[in-house]
Write a structure and sequence with these properties.
The structure is a homodimer. By secondary structure, chain A is mainly alpha-helical. Chain A is built from 23 helices and six strands. The first copy, chain A, has three domains: about 120 residues, Alpha Horseshoe (MgtE N-terminal fold), CATH 1.25.60; about 100 residues, Roll (CBS-domain); about 170 residues, Tetracycline Repressor, domain 2 (Orthogonal Bundle), CATH 1.10.357.20. Chains A, B: Acts as a magnesium transporter.
Chain lengths: ~450, ~450
């Protein structure tokens, strides 16, 4: 859909045409289209969306658009929206609203729904409880396939997903039946005969990243959430799990590159907030670099005697930084994907040590040849070869150990990535370099 | 399940117990459990898995386990496996097998299936065609809900997903009906009356990453794949899309940290392959650093006169590298998530310039104070403040521009990350530093 045409039609009040366009579009694209409208046009366009789609479109909108719409809604419109909105989307909305609007919304929902909302709002941020929805299909173990299908026909349209059905006994989850089973099995079979009893579930307090990982591992469409007493309280659906995976990955990449993670997109974030998100780590790393500075200052005599020494510093520190960040990236990602654990530390270190030796020899020889060709200086070649190999071994071992210890200490391993590793490795490599230089070249 | 107990039971030939254990476990966990077995125990254990689960477990195994099992299978076992394996898993298997085993497998499948396999094998690597499956539910537009349900009951068990049904007319896709619609709508309605006609689809040649992104954007469970003539040839399911998202992210992170991406896990990769995956970029970056080296060598006189100059080099280059990688990370991720496009280049550069100014001033002032306190040297404080601010502006602009141009030139933007940006920014920051120094301090 061409945005300009749509906006022109809206401006010319061609509401019938606008309505027809909105009718054939899917809810995601409508939300994207509406994002470009001015506030007044936004509420106008939103009112032209057919009733059955409106809540879905609303759920796809940015929170600033949602807040504006809620402010503009009549009581009746608000009531209709809240009736159609799924529980997880309702909670997402409330988290963004100012207090007076929260009160207004809570006035419009039933006591039962209000209690559910308050419970979910109280779960820790980034927990399974905070992203779950409370609408799911529950059945009894004596229900037959035919009865289950009839029950879904009656109530299913108000459930976020009907593709996994939960068999409860005294509010406890005792089995799972898929819609595929219901659609392909004999009508008279009871749930008890069909249900899968080896259930993968999480608790309300399970971290959302861990929850999302279970979807990828077990190819799930939905995952039941139990409270601390073991009662079933909701489900997390695959669409929310997918969002968590994408968001958590972005967060990891940002942390790994000295950025405070932001939930907004690049353009949604203001210049001031961008600067704020970047200055913190830069300051820490800049001030940490004073250690390297102090080390260099101690060796003034050495490079005053042999100025060529200085020109190799960036090559040496960069190579060290790159080697360290290679190792830390592999370990950080391995930890995130549950492929590496703290108890593997000795295996990892031993592996990195051997890799470092191989890499070190290849790089040292290449650099040695380069120095011989360019400077015809065998002593310098040997100095750089030794420093380079030692730096690479140190960098790779620091690079793999720090994320593992971070994990052990419940600190996000992503912090132990390129920027911090580089700063630490810098100090080490400069120390190695000048130590080797003073010994090898007989300086003080 | 405790692995040791399982292995003990297997060794003691307690097959009945082993079979019961395998019966209650899910296929993913069985595959993980079997991964630790020796070859001979592996085939033994695999034969104890109940028929209805065996193909699913097989599909979850590593390719080396799959190859071994295919070699050991009797003709009858191979036939059974191929009957139960979905098309996408069959193709995955064939891609890993040596030629003689491929021939053996193709001998066991029907002509029709063989043709399908060959077609899929010919699609480009990492395309939607290469990850799709050909088993899906297709219906006619005149089919009623009741007829559709009966059809699924009859054939659905052999389809990878039945939750999205495709309405075809002369092999062309004209609509989509969800299982939720079928389960909640009136029995007599025809597909034509129910179906969604605004269809999101991909072609066989669409990149798998782009395909996967559509799942996240539109909350899909399956996505139809059309061939170049517009005929429907298969579907991609959410579980495969999720795997693509996780794998592509790992690949991006690896490329962004100077690693050749590897499809195997950290421990599955040998020391030699780890070294090979790392040496290439390290060599390129190390040799690029000779540019910086040459620049430094030109200013020998300057730091011979004022050795203190040298000690600030790592702080300056590291800060430049970190600033550049912050910007490049945000742009690379924004490009991957389709939030930033090449035509935004001026908006991005202008934003980065303003962010750089803010960040530059804060860092320059902090560093100026530090230098005044430590060295009581106002000239040095001014020199560092100017160099730092100029470096930060340069780094942020290079950091945001390079990934955008890479995208434009169809090169993976992830290459333009920390390591390469650091190397380029190093040369620039050293040049700025010594230029400012020679002018400010009146050196040559």
């Amino acid at each position: 859909m061409n945005k300009q045409i749509f906006m022109d039609l809206l401006e010319k009040k061609e509401f019938k045409a606008v309505r027809s366009i909105l009718e054939v579009m899917n809810t995601v694209d409508i939300a994207a289209l509406l994002a470009d409208l001015e506030d007044k046009e936004l509420i106008q366009a939103f009112r032209l969306i057919e009733k059955s789609k409106a809540a879905d479109v609303f759920a796809q909108m940015s929170s600033s658009m949602q807040v504006y719409l809620v402010e503009m809604f009549t009581e009746k419109e608000l009531q209709e929206l809240l009736n159609d909105l799924y529980m997880d989307d309702t909670v997402d909305l409330l988290e963004e609203l100012p207090a007076n609007l929260v009160t207004r919304i809570l006035d419009h929902v039933s006591k039962e729904k209000r209690d559910q909302i308050n419970t979910i709002l109280n779960y820790p941020e980034d927990s399974a409880g905070s992203i779950m929805t409370t609408e799911y299909v529950d059945l009894k173990k004596t229900t037959t396939v035919k009865e289950a299908m009839a029950h879904i026909k009656e109530t299913g349209i108000r459930k976020e997903t009907i593709y996994t059905c939960y068999i409860l006994e005294n509010r406890r989850l005792i089995g799972i039946v898929s819609a595929k089973d219901l659609m392909t099995m004999d009508d008279d079979l009871q749930m008890e005969e069909l249900m899968e009893t080896e259930i993968i579930s999480v608790t309300t307090h399970t971290d959302q990243e861990e929850t999302a990982r279970l979807f990828a591992k077990y190819d799930l469409l939905a995952l039941p959430v139990l409270d601390m007493q073991g009662y079933m309280v909701g489900i997390v659906t695959i669409d929310d799990a997918l969002d968590v995976i994408v968001d958590e990955t972005t967060e990891d990449m940002e942390i790994m590159n000295a950025l405070n993670p932001s939930e907004k997109t690049y353009f949604e974030t203001s210049v001031a907030v961008h600067a704020k998100n970047r200055i913190g780590w830069l300051l820490v790393l800049m001030l940490s670099a004073t250690i390297t500075q102090t080390i260099i200052a101690r060796y003034e005599a050495a490079f005053a005697a042999l100025p060529l020494l200085v020109s190799f510093i960036p090559m040496l520190t960069d190579t060290g930084g790159n080697c360290g960040s290679q190792s830390s990236t592999l370990v950080i990602r391995g930890l995130a994907l549950d492929e590496i654990h703290f108890q593997d530390i000795f295996r990892v270190v031993f592996k990195e040590f051997r890799v470092a030796l191989l890499v070190g020899v290849v790089l040292a020889v290449t650099n040695g040849i380069y120095i011989m060709v360019r400077y015809h200086d065998p002593m310098m070649a040997v100095l750089i070869a030794i420093s380079l190999t030692a730096t690479i071994i140190m960098a790779k071992i620091i690079g793999c150990i720090l994320p593992l210890f971070a994990k052990k200490l419940h600190v996000d391993p992503a912090i132990m990535a390129a920027p911090l590793i580089t700063t630490i490795v810098d100090a080490g490599s400069i120390l190695i370099y000048f130590q080797v230089a003073t010994h090898l070249l007989g300086m003080v």
